[in-house]
């Protein structure tokens, strides 16, 4: 269809198939979608990530597929704060994402307001931004290029923890993690420990099968687990046994199909000590 | 009595009137007591804080009364890592401590082992030790010398939060705070907000009455609240209404006597939204 004239008025109706304002980047997805749809409708071409960024900073990232870096930029007006693709979505086909949706509750503090308070009050955030992030960013790009899941996973976990540390260093403190988040983090560490990967390796041991999982939690209690395709079924079963679903048992796993897995007794004993029924609402399996 | 000859063998029996291994410095109290008692028994004189420090680092602080600084020292063997008194216990007679004992559970990770893992893995702890603590230490001494409760309280809260931030930045992460700790921290902030003291003051407003409270949480979920004498009764009543005691209602407040206080309706509405019965086991009121 030919592009609309810009003078045309439109009615916008949006729908989210994700929990909103729960630390799952719903505003990024929403603004990226809005900008893409409007650009196509009106025939706007050119750099759209800068436009999306005005709605919600992280929306610029969501304009591209695969692995995307959001560059801070140098200009005071922020116009060079853009996203670019580090690797396309075909680069690491075995990488999987499991979103553990624990609660549809709204965040205590919105991300943008929270970030501003952190910038104003947290000495640790200043140090993180100046001294820690640049080095970690370069390291993360290398792990992605080399498809090094162990390096990728450990750095993802450490950086997620450090983000939450700076929230706690904010005054008044911001808590995005709750007891259930801690429970899920501990579950991932027990799972990895069982597969012999707890410690920071001094010399790199030969890669065992299956590889471990990596947790990352954003501005909310929902947990995102990175893992490789051949670990998905086993870890999903661990989550199901740890948080037995209440009523919606058949919709507990959504997204890409997940195979069946039966857990060895010693894994169950080591990793799933005491089930908490209903605590995880559902798991979204995606790439 | 004359001192015992060092060849005498002794039987040691100890008892704690505090929860053990719950982030309330029970090992510091225990070792300080042991060293004092043995020194008196055997007639040992001289610098005992260095001896106490060998049992548990923080025990050197507990050898002295009042406000005590534990100096890091410079020597590799640690023999100049000693405590000294900043001000005697008579310096600030209005200052009060309320210990909210929430659970006798053992810590997930002992403080000494946890600290070592943090030193090994947390980039934020390194920055905190090098760049943040020296400045804050000097500031805290000034607040104590000047009996500036507002400065003292805010710095105590921020530094407590930053300690927990470095625990979270440790890998694997250490969590000493749980949902109840967060609940108590939020309660203190609401109480202060109600008394008009939420924000970091840009210019210092005239001091209102009553002054605010300050939370600090150590290596466990129990909370320590600093406040001034004329706020104790009101805040204790706020805690009682927020966490109505179960069976032991008459032993809910221990230590120094606490007067009765009735809470204005608007304070109740603003500060005590939803009571959680039984969550706080008891309050210890001390100086």
TrEMBL record, chains A, B:
Q: Which reaction does it catalyse?
A: (R)-5-diphosphomevalonate + ATP = isopentenyl diphosphate + ADP + phosphate + CO2
Decide whether keyword Lipid metabolism is in the record.
yes
Swiss-Prot/TrEMBL keywords: ATP-binding, Lipid biosynthesis, Lipid metabolism, Lyase, Nucleotide-binding, Steroid biosynthesis, Steroid metabolism, Sterol biosynthesis, Sterol metabolism
Question: What InterPro entries does UniProt report for this protein, alphabetically?
Answer: GHMP_kinase_C_sf, Mev_decarb, Mev_diP_decarb, MVD-like_N, Mvd1_C, Ribosomal_Su5_D2-typ_SF, Ribsml_uS5_D2-typ_fold_subgr
Q: Which GO terms describe its cellular component?
A: cytosol
Q: Copy the pathway line from the protein's UniProt record.
A: Steroid biosynthesis; cholesterol biosynthesis
Task: Respond yes or no to whether keyword 4Fe-4S is given for this record.
Answer: no
Top-level class of the enzyme under EC nomenclature: lyase
Mention any Pfam family matching this sequence: MVD-like_N
Residue limits of the Diphosphomevalonate decarboxylase-like N-terminal domain?
7-83
| Ranges of residues in domain Mvd1 C-terminal | 97-287
Q: What does this protein do?
A: Catalyzes the ATP dependent decarboxylation of (R)-5-diphosphomevalonate to form isopentenyl diphosphate (IPP). Functions in the mevalonate (MVA) pathway leading to isopentenyl diphosphate (IPP), a key precursor for the biosynthesis of isoprenoids and sterol synthesis.
Tell me the protein's name.
Diphosphomevalonate decarboxylase
